[in-house]
Amino acid sequence: MTKTDLPLRMNRPLSPPEPPSLLLRHHGTASRAVVLLPLLLALAACTSVPLPPWPTPTGTVSAPAPVLAPVPAPIPAVVVQPVPDRPALAPLPPAGAAPYSAAVAARFPAPSVIYNTPGLQQGRSSFTSNAEIQTWLRELSTAASRSPGLKAAVLPIGQSQRGETLEALVLTRAAGTDAAAIAATGHPTVLLVGQQHGDEPAGTEALLVVARELTQGLLRPVLERVNVIIVPRANPDGSAAGQRVTTGGLDMNRDHLLLNTPEAQALARLARDYHPTVVVDAHEYTVVGRFLQKFGTVQKYDALLQYATTANIPEFLTKASEEWYRRPLVTALQAQGLSTEWYYTTSTDLADKTVSMGGTQPDTGRNVSGLKNAVSLLIETRGVGIARLHIQRRVHTHVTAISSVLASTAQRASELGQLQPYIEKEMSALACKDEAVIEAAPTLTQKDLVMLDPVTGADRTVKVEWNSALTLRKIKTRVRPCGYWLSAGSRTAVERLRLHGVQVLRVAEPASMLGDLYRETARSAGVRQDVRGSIADAGQIVRAEVALVRGVIDAPSGSYYVPLNQPLANLVIAALEPDTQSSYFANRLLDSLSSTARVLSEPSLRTEELP
Fold it and tell me: Can you tell me the mean pLDDT for 175-191?
């Protein structure tokens, strides 16, 4: 098939009691002069801005995007006023401790606020431990329970591969903290996830700060309009080992479709049950390493940002991500003197000087959350490879960005309440219609990328080959089926789909259906790839080329039917079309091509719900 361009659819005030130990401190003062008055006023005065009339769903991938409601004035994030007589900042680490010169380090002065978590204590050499996180969450939950109308709970959501308990803090003004009570509020739910990669600690420390400000501090007004769920550390084993991957050597942030790791499974169950409207994934990125080797430069930006960029993301979701979230987020960061750019990375092959935005495969938390119809935002601060250097600034960047996301959600609560149900209805209505993109790729262009001279610290502009994920190229398309048939032996695939929240029906009586069978035309072995190179996972994949053969599908009792007239239809397509590197077949969750088929007309089936 000829490659063609696929445009990605974008384009109440209060005085809280002082907590026992100060969360935020000025340099040289114990005052908590957090300037949130603009945020509080904006929330108090916020009115609903009606969405424009929704277009009639056409199912066309490249349908023009309508104009959304105007972007509101940006809300400042958590900001601490500088103290005129503050003492000098702490000296830089001894010579040789930083992987670049003092001139580069001077480009990243500490913020005028000190964040105080267990892992950020002065003289501490390690970050907050998992046990300390658990204690922190329980103390916040207990304190929150003393506030009238505020509900909090610490939920065990699973275990890591080494048996560490994975926990989430739920904060709400609902009648309870269970999923049904949260849904009954009608308010959007924001899921905040930190440290999927164990060597990226700033997100975890920032989420502990945000959790305390929501329960005892000046972010509490957000909870009048928003439910918040916080998973401070998703990969405790990796954190304890100081490594990116899990104990089993898997990159859990490439496991959100397959769900091979217990850590990714825990996040999937949480999202399935609580149905978040907005998901924020807090990471850090490599500062020197291969960038210094390839380009002779050091990474500049305080924050790299991106939202879901994979095939079949609804256009309104992308527009909301851009106009309602990313733009205000950039403004909030800039107001703090923090620099931003689109997220980008480069491969581990030193001969390859291409720079790529975040990947377009449907496997990362960012992209899978988008396929689940949530606004999905990636926030990366400069941290990998520099240990504790600039840690207060890194945490400040995350706190500022996450506060902006919470404020935007509170401002847009009414619109978000319209947006997600509309998208889910639209996705369900596309079954049996038009085409679906099976595989897409970024568009190669050029970009002037600003980095830093490693000696002088001055800006240095580098012209790079740039893989843009904002415009995707169609690699492979097919008619969108009505659903998929799965054999009775496909229990692992069925289990994973249901973990995502996909409806899977069991065939109760034998039946026949019109559809397409997959016939293998070529096969090879390989490994999954992302823009960095080979993905750390369990083994090789099956790379199959297939042809579609029209025929009658015999569906015996005990086999399964996965309808596409459901909100997660696009996730189902990503999982079950076999000839992509992320599919369940390629990754051996389905044992053969004969285990699945595309159903092309609404079947007459007697089915039963699975328990």
Answer: 98
Q: Average pLDDT for residues 472-498, to the nearest whole number?
A: 98
* H/E stretch holding 47: none
Helix (H) or strand (E) holding 381: strand 375-384
Confidence of residue 539 (pLDDT cuts 50, 70, 90): confident
Measured distance CA(341)–CA(39) in Å, rounded: 24
What average pLDDT does the chain have?
Answer: 87
Identify the pLDDT of residue 573.
98
Looking at the chain, the number of H-run helices and the number of E-run strands are 15, 24
Residue type, 280: V
Rg (C-alpha) for the chain, rounded Å, is: 24
Report the range of poorest mean pLDDT among 49-53, 292-296, 299-303, 393-397.
Answer: 49-53
Reduced to 3 states (helix: H, G, I; strand: E, B; else coil), residue 32 is coil
**Which segments within 504-566 are labelled E, that is strand?**
505-507, 511-526, 529-530, 533-534, 541-555, 560-563
SS3 465: strand
- The secondary structure of 271-315 as a DSSP string is HHHH--SEEEEEEEEESSTHHHHHHS-B---SEEEEE--STT--H
What the block records as the tokens of 580 is 């992509």
What's residue 538's pLDDT? Answer: 62
pLDDT at residue 359, rounded to an integer = 94
The candidate with the shortest Cα–Cα distance to 270, out of 223, 214, 231, is: 231
Average pLDDT over residues 241-257: 96
Per-residue DSSP letters for 52-64? Answer: PPPPPP---TTPP
Direct distance between the N- and C-terminal alpha carbons of the chain, in angstroms, rounded to an integer: 42
Inform me whether the pLDDT recorded for 540 exceeds 70: yes
Round to whole Å and give the CA distance between 476 and 515.
Answer: 19
Q: What are phi and psi of 325, to 5 degrees?
A: -125, -60
Task: Characterize 77-109 residue by residue with b for buried, 16 or more Cβ atoms within 10 angstroms of its Cβ, and e for exposed.
Answer: bbbbeeeeeeeeeeeeeeeeebbbbeebbebbe
Cβ(195)–Cβ(267) below 8 Å: no
Instruction: Please name which of 360, 315, 340 lies closest in space to residue 8, comparing C-alpha atoms.
Output: 315
Label residue 593 by pLDDT band (50, 70, 90): very high
Among 534, 546, 536, which residue's Cα sits nearest to residue 585? 546
54 pLDDT higher than 50:
no
Domains of the chain, CATH where assigned: 13-49+188-434 (3.40.630.10), 435-474 (no CATH), 481-609 (no CATH)
User: What is the maximal distance between C-alpha atoms in the chain?
Assistant: 81
